[in-house]
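[Discussion] Sanity-checking designs against the backbone

I'm trying to build intuition for which residues belong where. Below is a structure token string of 497 positions. I'd appreciate it if someone posts a full sequence so I can compare it with mine line by line.
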């Protein structure tokens, strides 16, 4: 079934209504721009074109990167839950590409991960895929290429687009939707530099993990090894524009604005605050939370999404931005402007607060017992690959090949699995499971249930567990979504027996 002309118009008007992606409309659905093309035999519902494109993040600040449909962020694609779509993926670059439908329950040949066996979109070639979008909610698509030492490749590029899968029944207790993509550009390598992690709670560290991790690091440095590379950035943007150089979000007092926020970073944790306002979080990674809760700011690991309603009840001209002063001053912000208010955008830091996933769960809820538990320990070999850290899952680094490796765990359809993860490093890891949605069951020793996600942040020397039901047969990739980590070993495969 094709997206009808009527649905296309609806998608267009909703998109234009955000005022944030003005270039998206014409380029998003070229095959649906004319009735005849959309109706003719063989036209795809959507076309996504991968090509090198200059993007202007601020006046005279132009980046050359790879994008979707010549824009950053890529097109916002609105699907309808359960309504089959055909998408043409056109690759105009010299590199075979993978386009991953993050957070969707799709088959392997659609998912977009070479490690699972999805065919590449050939360089200067194309693939047509067809699938039923599901589950409903805020998803996204991005490249799944390995970048390795090439900081222009993979998720360092501008290959990020948003997907909104409209549910069969939209709750709709808001006045408008605004989609925001947080993303840095111009990456460079640096040595060391710990990621800030004092926001995550509970922060219970496991002594055994800490002793092992610290001993390994100490031994490496004693041998004269430098600290492994990390990545830093020059330019920070929301919806592809640095703070002060994008279109403001214009609001009216009393409006309820539903923000859909995506951390499109390759490597960084992001936060987002709006002075004088709070966020009523209704969904995490696109999945409604059992206990919608109000928080002073949002905190997102790489690839995480948050949907939150902000009631516009504090008139003024505000900077909605990252709580990190350096990153915000270098562009990670967007202006929110009330009607008839003028002046310089104001920033004030939010109150101290800790991000706790269990806050969004029903208090006292408990998850059913799993049929089987997989134990996983993640560890770092400092600087052993040309100065890059190598990452291991239960002692094994995934081959640096972009290709399929033997599966480490085997699933039986219909069974419920628990993945109990232990982090023997001091880094935070955004852990992602492909082609399935999981339920958080333990955060740093605290039991929880009911929060459904596809990425979870695992703190340094901490443990996290999630459960999932094996309901989508085929190779399934499990990895850290931090590009430097996944590229240097932090991946493993599940298969179905
Ligand atoms: Cu990681």
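Best answer:
Here's mine. Compare freely.
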């Amino acid at each position: 079934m094709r997206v009808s002309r009527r649905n296309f118009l609806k998608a267009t008007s909703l998109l234009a209504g955000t005022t944030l992606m003005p270039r998206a409309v014409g380029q998003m659905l070229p095959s649906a721009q004319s009735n005849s093309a959309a109706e003719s035999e063989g036209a795809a519902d959507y076309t996504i074109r991968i090509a090198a494109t200059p993007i202007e993040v601020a006046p005279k600040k132009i980046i050359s990167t790879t994008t979707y449909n010549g824009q950053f962020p890529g097109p916002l694609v609105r699907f309808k839950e359960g309504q089959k779509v055909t998408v043409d993926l056109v690759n105009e670059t010299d590199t075979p590409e993978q386009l991953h439908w993050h957070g969707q329950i799709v088959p392997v040949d659609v998912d977009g991960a070479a490690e699972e066996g999805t065919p590449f979109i050939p360089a200067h070639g194309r693939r047509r895929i067809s699938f039923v979008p599901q589950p409903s909610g805020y998803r996204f698509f991005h490249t799944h290429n390995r970048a390795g030492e090439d900081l222009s490749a993979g998720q360092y590029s501008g290959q990020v687009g948003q997907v909104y899968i409209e549910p069969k029944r939209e709750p709709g207790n808001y006045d408008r939707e605004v989609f925001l993509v947080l993303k840095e550009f111009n990456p460079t390598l640096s040595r060391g530099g710990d990621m800030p992690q004092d926001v995550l709670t509970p922060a219970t560290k496991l002594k055994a993990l800490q002793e092992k991790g610290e001993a390994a690091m100490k031994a490496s440095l004693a041998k004269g090894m430098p600290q492994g590379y990390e990545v830093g950035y020059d330019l920070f943007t929301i919806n592809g524009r640095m703070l002060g150089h994008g279109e403001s979000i214009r609001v009216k007092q009393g409006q309820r604005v539903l923000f859909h926020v995506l951390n499109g970073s390759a490597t960084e944790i992001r936060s987002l605050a709006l002075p004088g306002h709070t966020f009523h979080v209704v969904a995490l990674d696109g999945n409604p939370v059992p206990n919608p809760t109000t928080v002073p700011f949002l905190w997102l690991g790489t690839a995480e999404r948050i949907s939150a309603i902000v009631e516009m009840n504090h008139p003024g001209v505000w900077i909605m931005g990252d709580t990190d002063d350096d990153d915000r001053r270098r562009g990670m912000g967007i202006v929110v402007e009330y009607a008839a208010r003028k002046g310089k955008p104001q920033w004030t830091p939010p109150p101290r607060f800790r991000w706790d996933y269990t806050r969004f769960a029903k208090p006292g809820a408990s998850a059913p017992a799993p049929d089987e538990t997989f134990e996983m320990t993640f560890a770092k070999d400092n600087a052993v690959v040309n100065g890059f850290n190598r990452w291991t899952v239960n002692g094994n680094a995934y081959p640096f090949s972009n290709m399929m490796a033997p599966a480490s765990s085997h699933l039986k359809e219909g069974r419920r699995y628990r993945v109990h993860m232990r982090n023997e490093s001091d880094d935070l890891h955004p852990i992602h499971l492909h082609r399935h949605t999981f339920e958080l069951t333990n955060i740093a020793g605290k039991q929880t249930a009911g929060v459904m996600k596809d990425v979870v942040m695992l703190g340094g020397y901490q443990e996290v567990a999630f459960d999932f039901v094996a309901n989508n047969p085929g190779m399934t990739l499990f990895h850290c979504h931090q590009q430097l980590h996944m590229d240097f070993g932090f991946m493993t495969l599940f298969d179905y027996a």
